[in-house]
Amino acid sequence: MKPRLGGGWPVNPRSAPPALFWVARAPTVGLALIKRALDAAETNDLSAQLDLERELQREASQTPDFAEGVGAFLEKRQANFTGRRSR
Question: What is the CATH number of domain 18-75?
Fold first, then answer.
């Protein structure tokens, strides 16, 4: 069975770059929050950026992916992220 990415497109594991598989398995909500922080960093001063990052960390810590990541780490297993925002 070939791995599938979002949208259902089959991926040939021999020709796809390894980073593609990492992104496909990554916590998508976390990646979106990182993107928000990076986008804001261009115009925020240090204080505003730290405030934003504090809020984004709080938001990330309330997602099912956070709980899954912590559980997977403690159980020494591969995380299975869902990309949902609420528990």
Answer: 1.10.12
